[in-house]
């Protein structure tokens, strides 16, 4: 879960929820962290190295707008200090990996350091840096693909296949992307994941911060597409007139979103089906595989 749908109420309503702190303000991060009940996880966006001013200028001219001012660090320093103080059980990174020094600081605070990866190469580098676990993201996931650079083309390798190549690294894994049923969760656990992250399934949960406008869109039959036209990074969400009109936008994250505030923005995974509008605990129960009966020895 990310952005608006991720709320302290949703985190507290499930067995182990993640609080998305990527785009909020540092003040919001501190407030939300204080409202979450242990155990829980928190996710941070890593600062962006690419400036992309020239590319952003070209896109702004194409759209008849001025280049907006953006914070390429997402307030990372202040938010990192906030998670050190709050000490969630897990702190994960997206769009990059923590440094060895940052991992050491998280460990000293009592938190595990995890990293989101969308391919084997990044998984190996994260393991080399000493992370405690990996969030392995497949192509059916809603929201932004977890590539470490803006321009990188995300792989289309199915999550099951990616797990086969990453599990041998020996780190605990949370599998993310496309889980819509208890059967999907059981399959991914059988592929070697220790846990499965579900985001799209909770978008209509009572505790989710999903806007009423987006709740209506999610109930529609509109397809999801993978496009740079949502934010300037590859992301999966509901198709819009803007995504259809601009299938070839260059990588200009995060400049694009302020340029297109009128563009409908509802990030969601592929093949979502009918999403449940119910308490989060009930949705979680529907996604939980039944325990495997123990074999009785005779």
Q: What does the model show?
A:
The chain has 298 residues and is an alpha/beta fold. It contains 12 helices and 10 strands. The strands form 2 sheets. It has a 7-stranded parallel beta sheet with strand order 1-2-3-4-5-7-8. The N and C termini lie far apart (46 Å).
User: What's the total number of strands?
Assistant: 10
Beta-strand percent range: 5-15%
Estimate percent helicity: 25-40%
Main sheet overview: 7 strands, parallel
Count the DSSP helices: 12
C-alpha geometry: globular
- What is the strand arrangement across the widest sheet? 1-2-3-4-5-7-8
> N- to C-terminal separation?
46 Å
Provide a concise account of the structure shown.
This protein is 33% helix and 14% strand.
Main traits of this protein?
298 residues; three-stranded antiparallel sheet; 12 helices; seven-stranded parallel sheet
Topology:
Layout: H1 8-13, E1 18-20, H2 26-35, E2 41-45, H3 53-63, H4 76-86, E3 90-94, H5 100-109, E4 112-117, H6 120-129, E5 133-137, E6 143-144, H7 159-166, E7 173-176, H8 182-190, E8 195-197, H9 212-218, E9 224-227, E10 235-238, H10 241-245, H11 256-259, H12 280-287
Helix pairs in contact: 2-4
